[in-house]
C-alpha cells in the first residue's frame, strides 16, 4: 500500500531541522547562567526567580524535550511520562536525566526528586491525584510552569497555538538565563511555520478548503480525533485546510466511526503512536480499523488512500510540532490539495 506521508520527506526534514539547535545534539551545557532575577507569568500565575533553577523536573515528554532543546539537561532533576522513544538528537542529553516515573508522576515521586521548579505541557498534570496542585507546590516554595498552549483563556487574544508555544521557549529562556538560545529556537520555528505555509498547495479560487480528520488513537474500538482546541486545527489553517471536527470544543474528543464517515473528510491524518504500545495505537492498526469498518471503508479518502501518517506525539504542542506541520504541508500538496 502506498504511504503518501513519506513523499516530499526532504521538505519535512528540512522544516524539522530548522527547529533543532545543536545544543541538544552535542550534549553541551546550557549558556552561562544569568546572575539576574527573572519574572514571568505562566497560565495566569506570576513566577519570580532569584536565579536560574538548578533542579527542574519535567512532568511530560514534551516539556522534557523543550528543556533538552534549550540545552538545560544539567539543570534537570527528573523527567516522567515518556510516551515514545526520545529522538536521536536528544538521546545523549536525556541519558543523564533521572526518570522519576515512567508514566504520570505522583506527588510523592515529585517531592522525592527535590525540585526547585516543575514544568508541564498540560495543566491536568497538576492535580491532587497526580503531581499535586500548583497551589500545593507553591506552598512548598516550588514554582510551576504550564505551557501557554494549555491555557488559551489566560493568554493575549489573537495569539495562535504556535505563537503560544514559541512564547514558552522565550519565557523558559528568561527563567534560565538562556534568552539567546531560546530566541534562536523561536525564530527558527517561526521560519519553519512560514515555510510550511509557503509549501502548502493553494486552493483554487471559488473552491472550498479540503477537510481533514486527525485520528489520534483508537481505544476499545472507538476513534479519538482532533477537536477545535488542539494543535491540528491550527496546522490545518496554516496549510489551507479545515479540521473536520473544528466545531467540537475539545483537544481529542471520542467520537464514532459513523460520525467520522458522516463528515466525509477529503483527507485523513493518522497519528502513529506505535511506540506507546497500547492496542490501536499503531498506524497499521488504525488503517485496519478503517478499511475493515463497513461505513468507513466506503469513504473516498479511505478507498483512494488519501491518508497521511505522522508521529502521533507531534500532533500535541511540542518542540517537534513543526516537523508534523512540514509533513502535512508536503504530503497534502503531493496528494492534491483540492476536492
Describe the secondary structure blueprint for this structure.
Elements: H1 9-18, H2 22-26, E1 38-42, E2 45-49, E3 56-58, H3 61-69, E4 76-80, H4 88-95, E5 99-101, H5 107-112, E6 117-120, H6 134-139, E7 144-146, H7 161-176, H8 179-199, E8 211-219, E9 222-225, H9 231-238, E10 242-243, H10 257-263, E11 267-272, H11 283-291, H12 300-303, E12 307-311, H13 321-335
Helix pairs in contact: 1-8, 1-13, 7-8, 8-13
Give the beta-strand count: 12
Outline the low-pLDDT stretches. Answer: 1-20, 22-34
Q: Helix-strand pattern, N to C?
A: HHEEEHEHEHEHEHHEEHEHEHHEH
CATH class annotation of the largest domain: Alpha Beta
Strand order of the largest sheet: 5-4-3-6-7
N-C termini distance: 22 Å
CATH topology of the largest domain: Rossmann fold
Gyration radius (Cα, Å) is: 20 Å
The domain tally reads 2
User: CATH homologous superfamily of the largest domain - what is it?
Assistant: Nitrogenase molybdenum iron protein domain
Q: What's the overall geometry?
A: globular
Amino acid at each position: 500500500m502506498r504511504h503518501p506521508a513519506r513523499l516530499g520527506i526532504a521538505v519535512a526534514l528540512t522544516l524539522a531541522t530548522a527547529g533543532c539547535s545543536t545544543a541538544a545534539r552535542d550534549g553541551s551545557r546550557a549558556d552561562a547562567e544569568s546572575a539576574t532575577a527573572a519574572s514571568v507569568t505562566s497560565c495566569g500565575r506570576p513566577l519570580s526567580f532569584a536565579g536560574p533553577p538548578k533542579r527542574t523536573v519535567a512532568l511530560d515528554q514534551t516539556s522534557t524535550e523543550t528543556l533538552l532543546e534549550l540545552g538545560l539537561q544539567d539543570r534537570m532533576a527528573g523527567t516522567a511520562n515518556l510516551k515514545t522513544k526520545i529522538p536521536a538528537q536528544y538521546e545523549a542529553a536525556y541519558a543523564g536525566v533521572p526518570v522519576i516515573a515512567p508514566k504520570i508522576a505522583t506527588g510523592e515521586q515529585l517531592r522525592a526528586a527535590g525540585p526547585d521548579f516543575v514544568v508541564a505541557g498540560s495543566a491536568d498534570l497538576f492535580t491532587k491525584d497526580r503531581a499535586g496542585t500548583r497551589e500545593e507546590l507553591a506552598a512548598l516554595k516550588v514554582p510551576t510552569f504550564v505551557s501557554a498552549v494549555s491555557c488559551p483563556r489566560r493568554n493575549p487574544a489573537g495569539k495562535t497555538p504556535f505563537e503560544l508555544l514559541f512564547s514558552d521557549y522565550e519565557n523558559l529562556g528568561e527563567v534560565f538565563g538562556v534568552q539567546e538560545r531560546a530566541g534562536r529556537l523561536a525564530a527558527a520555528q517561526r521560519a519553519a511555520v512560514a515555510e510550511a505555509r509557503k509549501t502548502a498547495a493553494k486552493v483554487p479560487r471559488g473552491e472550498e478548503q479540503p477537510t481533514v480528520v486527525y485520528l489520534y488513537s483508537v481505544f476499545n474500538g472507538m476513534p479519538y480525533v482532533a477537536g477545535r482546541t488542539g494543535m491540528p486545527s491550527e496546522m490545518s489553517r496554516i496549510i489551507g485546510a479545515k479540521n473536520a471536527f473544528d466545531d467540537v470544543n475539545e483537544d481529542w474528543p471520542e467520537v464514532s466511526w459513523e460520525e467520522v464517515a458522516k463528515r466525509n473528510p477529503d483527507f485523513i491524518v493518522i497519528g502513529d503512536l506505535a511506540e506507546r504500545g497500547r492496542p490501536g495505537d499503531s498506524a497499521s492498526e488504525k488503517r485496519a480499523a478503517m478499511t475493515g469498518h463497513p461505513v468507513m471503508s466506503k469513504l473516498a479518502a479511505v478507498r483512494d488512500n488519501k491518508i497521511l501518517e505522522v508521529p502521533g506525539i507531534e500532533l500535541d504542542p511540542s518542540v517537534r510540532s513543526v516537523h508534523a506541520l512540514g509533513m502535512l504541508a508536503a504530503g497534502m500538496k503531493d496528494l492534491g490539495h483540492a476536492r
